[in-house]
């Protein structure tokens, strides 16, 4: 047993250990993500927030409070998407750890006032779940603290804010607000047996009685008020279709979840079905009716709708549902359930009747109390109004300008004679001051304004006249006695008899009067005769009839607002349309002017008229209309053109774009005049982009006229203006490649203009007013050439098998100037085709005669900014160079794809080219500049410099090699001190030594003086290699020694005596330094490290015997010494030397003929 217990404890500790490790890992990740949030881009911030949310709220909820502030700080981020992501995080926090509600609710309230509508909509969506979870959490608190109370206050504030947003200008915000209020109504009402059950449902029944933050009754009243607001919003006439459908859905959900609201919802739906908002279009009406039908079907399935099933069935039949469909929707109930529900309906009806009776009795009691006008209160209101008006007028009458303005304005309205009433009431003004006169006039005017209830004093009057209960005086008739005496009965009977006699008398008088009138009518009929309208009337003048007609039409036009309110706007539009299409021109023009006054709002009326004209033109409609002498399509064309011109002249730029597009896309037919006007509009800088796009869309959407619109785009594709040309070509590519509209016509046009380049001068077809080039030109210009081949180059990537061959033929036949223009314009089409294009690769492989320059340019474009060219391309270029084109420039674009040996082989030919080309070659080889920095070469900078030194001088001129090495050494970033050391070490090992080695050594020493020690070692190695055997290298050796003196003096002492003598003869300036160095070494013993007497004699210039060493560099023994046989023909090999009798330096022999091509020593070239 103990072992089991111990094992259980061990497992628990292990689990805790792994849990802690998991939390620590998650914390580390979240910390890193939070650090990245500060400097990340908006999209990256959103991704990081998603990761933080998944990690913290998904697997490690205990970290939520720790990193909450870091996430909430992003609520102030300028990017909208980041703020929306923060809202999602807060929503998830309230689901996972609702106890953090007090910490996050302030952020929700702040974001609800955000400037972005998208953020506000996201906040409202999140508030649904936040409010529900918050309400459940606050109900569960036994002792809520200050933070909980503050959270509830902010939740209530959020609820009020969203309630106000039901009237927001944004349609989406209103829709989301409706859905939120739907949830509030469901949460703040009681559920019953018929309520639709959902997981996690919450109602007022779940609110405990002991809750200290809120009470059930208050929440229920608030929920009922919000429900009433939803009903009012649902019944407004200005509601949009989207909001109406959303509100209908919300009311249906409320009725299903809380059947107590079922009656009100059914009544609202009934009212909606009878009176749809007049602002809806036909399609919107159809959508609303479809949605209403669906919601009613959903309600009918609910058991709570049993009481209202008759009303719902009636509405469904009206909306188009069949009886069988309705019968299937009614829920099945047994007889007991049916009886129980019928009984409940009767009880509700009885309660309703009793309530009505009670209300009726109360209303009757109120009606029995007679009311009368409260004259005293009315008089008080008049006096107060007079005082307010008098004060207001007195303030303004003190300003002379105001008084003069009033006199001048109303002076023409004065009658010619004073009214009698004025004369009776007028009293002359006695001598008064100006202030008294102002007061008097203000009082008189104030009284008149009060009588008319005008001016600022009108606010003191109540809306309805003040009333009071009429006082009834007590009379003897009100004191009813229980005993009725006979006198009262007799008096009552006498009064009744008197009343009957009066009634009989009145009846007799009435009958006699009627009889007399009948006699008069009969006598009048005897004297009357038949009258004809034409005899008693005369026709109105034509101008008067036209005036009446015009005024009648104007009244119809001006009744726009009233017709919308009355729901007959469609009938008015139909009436105006028929009048406009069938009445004379003056009426037509008046209606057109009315439309153009506000064409944005009246465009639907214009379209109705346009389609009416089209129907008359096609014979679809047969109205009687005024005959004209014009063509049948004159009225339609005139209307369309006036509409287009009116939009262009009267609308601002934004509305002009939208309305012009609508007219051209929705008009039933487009005459040529309208299309020509669109073409002219497209020449306008502001409208060109939209005009060309519209022409392209018309070519797609109007197939019968596609030829005309494609022709317009083709003309623009060769226009002189570059912006029009580029846009037109882009639209033609869309028609050509995407929509496949008239591709053969486009090909024909492009190839026709391409072949113009073959001619010696531009043909006349290139110049036209339509193309923006009205004046002919005698010679080709670069811009004219670009116009001719521009469309062909644009279409080249989409049909290379046709256009590539034609371009090659034109390139061969055209002039040199146009060839250069073509080469400069190849970049975009060739880059779009790409290196995988089979026609391009085939062209490179074949390379017809005369196409070499074009092929090389294509290769350059295909390899531009490519780290390494495709192997297929390199292979074809290599074959091209080896078999057809011997120009080494072909290989330049693919240098990064060549092997080491191939690069070394072509290097001598490359450095012979033009200096500019050589510069580009070395930029490629060395990766200099942004254009070539990404390329990878088989040769390193060290290998390239070594290869340059090892080039055979017989193959390439030394001057070209010198220039190439100078280009390399000029790049100090690449040829650093270490790289040059590696180069010189490799050059020393080359046999024979490269001619330019010492020159490069001196240049390296000039660039990097710190190489002195390295060069000293290098010189010692050169002595071992008998550097004096190569004249140029030997001279460079001596130059280097001169540069490094006095440190290089020990190097001279390592030379054999003959070479030392030669060195001192060629460079006499070395002798003093060497002598000084020798004197400093006199104290050294005569061993291997000392200086021999022979060397000292050579240095001092005394007579010495010089022994010539053999080729191995060792000294010759005394018995083998022979005198030198003077033979000037063999200077390069010396076998013996004579004993010198003097130390006079021998003159340096001049170079023989074979050395004329050798370069000058380094520093003297």
UniProtKB/TrEMBL annotation:
It is found in: Nucleus. GO terms for cellular component: histone locus body; mRNA cleavage and polyadenylation specificity factor complex; tricellular tight junction. Residues 356-386 are annotated as: Disordered. Residues 887-1067 form the Symplekin C-terminal domain. Keywords: Coiled coil, mRNA processing, Nucleus. One of its GO terms (biological process) is mRNA 3'-end processing by stem-loop binding and cleavage. Residues 367-386 have a biased composition (Basic and acidic residues). It holds the Pfam family Symplekin_C. PANTHER family: SYMPLEKIN, SYMPLEKIN-RELATED. This is Symplekin. It comes from Drosophila yakuba (Fruit fly).
């Amino acid at each position: 047993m103990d072992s089991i217990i111990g094992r259980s404890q061990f497992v628990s500790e292990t689990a805790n250990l792994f849990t802690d490790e998991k939390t620590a890992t998650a914390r580390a990740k979240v910390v890193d993500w939070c650090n990245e949030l500060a400097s990340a881009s908006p999209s990256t911030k959103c991704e990081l927030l998603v990761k933080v949310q998944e990690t913290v709220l998904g697997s490690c909820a205990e970290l939520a409070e720790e990193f909450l502030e870091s996430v909430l700080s992003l609520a102030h981020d300028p990017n909208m998407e980041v703020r929306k992501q923060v809202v999602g995080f807060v929503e998830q926090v309230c689901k996972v750890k609702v106890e953090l509600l007090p910490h996050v609710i302030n952020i929700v309230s702040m974001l609800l006032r955000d400037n972005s509508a998208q953020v506000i909509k996201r906040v409202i969506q999140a508030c649904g779940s936040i409010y529900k979870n918050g309400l459940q959490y606050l109900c569960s608190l036994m002792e809520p603290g200050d933070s909980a109370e503050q959270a509830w206050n902010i939740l209530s504030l959020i609820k009020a804010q969203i309630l106000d947003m039901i009237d927001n200008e944004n349609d989406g915000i209103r829709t989301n607000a409706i859905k939120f209020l739907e949830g509030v109504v469901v949460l703040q009402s009681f559920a019953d047996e018929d309520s639709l059950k959902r997981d996690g449902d919450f109602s007022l029944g779940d609110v405990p009685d002991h809750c200290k933050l809120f009470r059930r009754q208050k929440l229920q009243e608030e929920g009922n008020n919000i429900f009433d607001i939803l009903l009012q919003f649902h019944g407004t006439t200005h509601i949009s279709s989207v909001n109406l459908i959303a509100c209908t859905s919300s009311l249906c959900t409320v009725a299903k979840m809380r059947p107590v609201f079922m009656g009100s919802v059914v009544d609202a739906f009934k009212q909606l079905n009878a009176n749809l908002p007049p602002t809806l279009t036909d399609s919107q009406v159809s959508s609303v009716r479809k949605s209403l039908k669906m919601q009613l079907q959903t309600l009918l399935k609910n058991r709570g709708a049993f009481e209202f099933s008759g009303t719902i069935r009636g509405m469904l039949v009206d909306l188009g549902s069949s009886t069988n469909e309705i019968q299937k929707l009614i829920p099945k109930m047994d007889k007991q359930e049916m009886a129980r529900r019928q009984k409940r309906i009767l009880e509700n009806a009885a309660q309703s009747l009793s309530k009505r009776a009670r209300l009726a009795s109360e209303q009757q009691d109120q009606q029995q109390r007679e009311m009368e006008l409260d004259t005293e209160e009315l008089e008080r209101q008049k006096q107060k109004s007079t005082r307010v008006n008098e004060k207001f007028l007195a303030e303004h009458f003190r300003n002379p300008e105001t008084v003069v303005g009033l006199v001048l304005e109303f002076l023409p309205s004065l009658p010619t004679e004073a009214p009698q009433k004025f004369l009776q009431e007028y009293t002359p003004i006695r001598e008064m001051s100006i202030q008294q006169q102002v007061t008097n006039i203000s009082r008189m005017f104030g009284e008149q304004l009060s009588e008319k209830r005008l001016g600022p004093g009108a606010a003191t009057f109540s809306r309805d006249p003040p009333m009071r209960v009429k006082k009834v005086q007590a009379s003897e008739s009100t004191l009813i006695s229980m005993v009725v005496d006979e006198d009262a009965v007799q008096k009552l009977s006498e009064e009744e008899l008197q009343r009957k006699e009066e009634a009989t008398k009145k009846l007799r008088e009435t009958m006699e009067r009627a009889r007399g009138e009948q006699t008069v009518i009969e006598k009048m009929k005897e004297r009357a005769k038949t009258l004809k309208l034409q005899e008693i009337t005369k026709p109105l003048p034509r101008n008067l009839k036209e005036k009446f007609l015009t005024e009648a039409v104007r009244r119809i036009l001006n009744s726009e607002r009233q017709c919308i309110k009355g729901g007959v706007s469609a009938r008015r539009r139909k009436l105006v349309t028929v009048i406009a299409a069938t009445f004379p021109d003056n009426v037509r023009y008046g209606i057109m002017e009315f439309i153009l006054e506000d064409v944005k709002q009246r465009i639907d009326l214009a379209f109705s008229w346009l389609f009416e004209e089209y129907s008359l033109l096609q014979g679809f409609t047969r109205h009687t209309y005024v005959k004209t002498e014009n063509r049948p399509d004159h009225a339609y064309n005139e209307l369309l053109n006036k509409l287009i011109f009116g939009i262009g002249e009267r609308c601002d730029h934004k509305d002009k774009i939208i309305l012009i597009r609508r007219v051209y896309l929705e008009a039933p037919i487009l005459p040529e005049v309208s299309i020509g006007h669109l073409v002219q509009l497209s020449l306008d800088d502001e409208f060109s982009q939209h005009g060309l796009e519209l022409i392209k869309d018309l070519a797609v959407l109007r197939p019968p006229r596609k030829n005309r619109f494609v022709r317009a785009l083709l003309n623009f594709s060769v226009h002189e203006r570059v912006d029009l040309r580029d846009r037109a070509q882009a639209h033609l590519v869309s028609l050509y490649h995407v929509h496949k509209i008239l591709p053969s016509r486009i090909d024909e046009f492009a190839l026709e203009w391409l072949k113009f380049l073959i001619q010696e001068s531009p043909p006349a077809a290139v110049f036209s007013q339509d193309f923006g080039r009205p004046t002919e030109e005698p010679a080709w210009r670069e811009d004219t050439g670009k116009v001719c081949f521009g469309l062909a180059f644009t279409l080249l990537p989409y049909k290379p098998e046709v256009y590539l061959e034609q371009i090659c033929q034109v390139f061969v036949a055209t002039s040199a100037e146009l060839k250069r223009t073509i080469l400069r314009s190849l970049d975009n089409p060739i880059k779009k085709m790409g290196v995988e294009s089979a026609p391009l690769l085939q062209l490179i492989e074949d390379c017809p005669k005369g196409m070499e320059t074009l092929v090389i340019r294509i290769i350059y474009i295909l390899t531009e900014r490519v780290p390494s060219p495709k192997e297929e391309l390199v292979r074809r270029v290599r074959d091209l160079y080896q078999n057809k084109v011997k120009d080494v420039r072909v290989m330049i674009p693919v240098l990064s794809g060549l092997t080491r040996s191939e690069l070394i082989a072509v290097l001598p030919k490359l450095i012979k080219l033009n200096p500019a080309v050589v510069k580009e070659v070395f930029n490629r080889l060395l990766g200099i500049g942004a254009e070539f920095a990404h390329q990878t070469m088989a040769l390193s900078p060290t290998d390239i410099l070594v290869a340059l030194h090892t080039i055979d001088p017989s193959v390439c001129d030394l001057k070209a090699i010198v220039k190439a090495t100078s280009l390399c050494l000029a790049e100090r970033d690449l040829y650093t001190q270490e790289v040059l050391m590696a180069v010189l070490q490799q050059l020393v090992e080359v046999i024979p030594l490269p001619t330019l080695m010492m020159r490069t050594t001196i240049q390296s020493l000039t660039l990097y003086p710190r190489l002195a020690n390295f060069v000293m070692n290098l010189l010692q190695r050169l002595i071992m290699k008998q550097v004096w055997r190569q004249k140029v290298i030997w001279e460079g050796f001596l130059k280097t020694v001169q540069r490094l003196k006095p440190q290089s003096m020990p190097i001279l002492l390592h030379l054999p005596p003959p070479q030392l003598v030669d060195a001192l003869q060629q460079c006499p300036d070395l002798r003093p330094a060497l002598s000084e160095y020798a004197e400093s070494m006199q104290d050294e013993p005569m061993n291997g490290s000392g200086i021999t007497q022979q060397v000292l004699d050579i240095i001092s210039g005394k007579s010495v015997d010089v022994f010539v060493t053999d080729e191995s560099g060792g000294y010759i023994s005394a018995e083998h010494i022979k005198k030198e046989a003077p033979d000037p023909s063999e200077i390069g090999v010396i076998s013996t030397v004579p004993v010198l009798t003097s130390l006079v330096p021998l003159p340096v022999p001049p170079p023989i003929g074979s050395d004329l091509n050798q370069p000058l020593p380094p520093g003297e070239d």
